[in-house]
Automatic annotation (TrEMBL):
It comes from Clostridium thermosuccinogenes. GO terms for biological process: [2Fe-2S] cluster assembly; amino acid metabolic process. Belongs to the class-V pyridoxal-phosphate-dependent aminotransferase family. NifS/IscS subfamily. This is Cysteine desulfurase IscS. The gene is nifS. Master enzyme that delivers sulfur to a number of partners involved in Fe-S cluster assembly, tRNA modification or cofactor biosynthesis. Catalyzes the removal of elemental sulfur atoms from cysteine to produce alanine. Functions as a sulfur delivery protein for Fe-S cluster synthesis onto IscU, an Fe-S scaffold assembly protein, as well as other S acceptor proteins. Homodimer. Forms a heterotetramer with IscU, interacts with other sulfur acceptors.
Length: 393
C-alpha cells in the first residue's frame, strides 16, 4: 500500500466545505458593499450578516441580538475576559479559571494579573476534569468572573459546564466558557448551560478562518473591546468581514443539521482507535477522560519517544496529526495540559493528538494502525530506557 494522505488534525483546523465557499464567493465579488452604507449593495451585505447572526443564534439556543461577530475565537476570549474584568472592576478583581485553558484564556488572565487582577488557576484531576465543588470553594467576595473551557483542545475532556454555570448564577458571578472546540462537535444550548458568555470559531466546523463570535447574554455588563465605528450594535468596531461571516453562518447551519449522526460516526472512529492502539502498542497512556470527551478526540502519550519525531515520521507516511495544540507546536516545552494532569516531563513529551472529522473513514484507521506501531517501535529502539523497560529492569 503506497502512501496515502490522511488528515487527522481537525482540532487544529478544518477545510472550508464547498457549499460554504459557494455562499461566500458573491460577497467577495459582486456583493461587495459595505454593510454600513445605505444604498442597496450595502443593504444586501447587512442583510447577509443578519441572516448569518440568526443561524449562529439558532445553533446555540440564543437570541440573534446576543451574538457578536469577532475576528477569531481568540479575540472572543480576550473580549469576554478583559471586557468583564474592566467593566466590573468596581465590584471586585478576582477571576477563576483552570490550569488547562487554551492560551487565549491563560495569557489573557496572566495579562490581567499584571494589571492588578487576582486569578485562581484551578488544578484538574488525572482526566483533566475540574469539579463544581472546586469552583464553589474558590469563590470569594471579590470574584467577578469564572472562565472555564467547555472541552479541552488537547485531551478532549468535557467539563461540567451546566453545573458550574448554576453555581455562578446562584452567586451572581459572570460565567464565560471557551467553546471553540465544542461548537459544531457537540450540542450546545446557552440556556441549559447557564453561561453568560461563550466563544466560538468558524474554522473548527468547516467554516473560514478569521471569523469567530462571542455570545453575550442580554443584560451582561461588558465594555467594547475594539473602539471605532458603530458596527455590531456599537460593541465591536471595524468593517465586518461579510464573506467570512456568511461562511460562518452556513457552516454552523450545516454542522448542527446532522450533529447526532456526525457525533456517532466520530465516536465510533475515536473508540476504535483507542482500543486498537492500547491493544497493539505497549507503554502507552490515553490522556483525557475515557467517556466525557469530544467525539473526535484521541490523545496518547507513548513512553520513551519524542512527540516531534513521531509527527515527522507520520508526516512522511502522509498522516497529519499533532502533539499538542496547534498554537504551541513551535515551542519545545511539554504541553501545560499534560503536565497539569500529572504526566512527568519525559512522558508529556511523547504525546500524539489525533482528531477526526467528516471525511475520515475506517480505512484511515487501518492505515494509521499499519504505520503507527512500526514508527513507535523504531523510535523506541533508539532509547536506552526502553531497552531496560522491556527487560523489566
Amino acid at each position: 500500500m503506497g502512501n496515502r494522505s490522511v488528515y487527522l488534525d481537525h482540532a487544529a483546523t478544518t477545510a472550508v466545505k464547498p457549499e460554504v465557499l459557494e455562499e461566500m464567493i458573491p460577497y467577495f465579488t459582486e456583493k461587495y458593499g459595505n454593510p454600513s452604507s445605505i444604498y442597496s449593495i450595502g443593504r444586501e451585505s447587512k442583510k447577509a450578516i443578519d441572516e448569518a447572526r440568526d443561524k449562529v443564534a439558532a445553533a446555540l439556543g440564543a437570541k440573534p441580538q446576543e451574538i457578536f461577530f469577532t475576528g477569531s475565537g481568540t479575540e472572543a476570549d480576550n473580549w469576554a475576559i478583559k471586557g468583564i474584568a474592566y467593566t466590573n472592576r468596581h465590584k471586585g478583581n478576582h477571576i477563576i479559571t483552570t490550569a488547562i485553558e487554551h492560551h487565549a484564556v491563560l495569557h489573557t488572565c496572566q495579562y490581567l494579573e499584571s494589571d492588578g487582577f487576582e486569578v485562581t488557576y484551578l488544578p484538574v484531576d488525572k482526566d483533566g476534569l475540574v469539579t463544581p465543588e472546586q469552583v464553589r470553594d474558590a469563590i470569594k467576595p471579590n470574584t467577578i468572573l469564572i472562565t472555564i473551557m467547555f472541552a479541552n483542545n488537547e485531551i478532549g475532556t468535557i467539563q461540567p459546564i451546566a453545573e458550574i454555570g448554576k453555581i455562578a448564577r446562584e452567586k451572581g458571578i459572570y460565567f464565560h466558557t471557551d467553546a471553540v472546540q465544542a461548537v459544531g462537535n457537540i450540542p450546545i444550548n446557552v440556556e441549559e448551560l447557564n453561561v453568560d458568555l461563550l466563544s466560538l470559531s468558524a474554522h473548527k466546523f468547516y467554516g473560514p478562518k478569521g471569523v469567530g463570535a462571542l455570545y453575550i447574554r442580554k443584560g451582561t455588563k461588558i465594555n467594547s473591546f475594539i473602539h471605532g465605528g458603530a458596527q455590531e450594535r456599537g460593541r465591536r468596531a471595524s468593517t465586518e468581514s461579510v464573506a467570512n461571516i456568511v461562511g460562518m453562518g452556513k457552516a454552523i447551519e450545516l454542522a448542527t443539521a446532522n450533529l447526532e449522526e456526525y457525533n456517532k460516526k466520530l465516536i465510533a472512529l475515536r473508540d476504535r482507535t483507542i482500543d486498537e492502539v492500547m491493544k497493539k502498542i505497549p507503554f502507552v497512556k490515553l490522556n483525557g477522560h475515557r467517556e466525557k470527551r469530544l467525539p473526535g478526540n484521541v490523545n496518547f502519550s507513548f513512553e520513551f519517544i519524542e512527540g516531534e519525531s513521531l509527527l515527522l515520521m507520520l508526516d512522511m507516511k502522509g498522516i497529519a496529526a499533532s502533539s499538542g495544540s496547534a498554537c504551541t507546536s513551535g515551542s519545545l516545552d511539554p504541553s501545560h495540559v499534560l503536565l497539569a494532569i500529572g504526566l512527568p516531563h519525559e512522558i508529556a513529551h511523547g504525546s500524539l493528538r489525533i482528531t477526526f472529522g467528516e471525511e475520515n473513514t475506517d480505512e484511515d484507521i487501518d492505515y494509521l494502525m499499519e504505520v503507527l506501531p512500526d514508527i513507535v517501535n523504531r523510535l523506541r529502539e533508539m532509547s536506552p530506557l526502553y531497552e531496560k523497560a522491556v527487560k523489566g529492569e
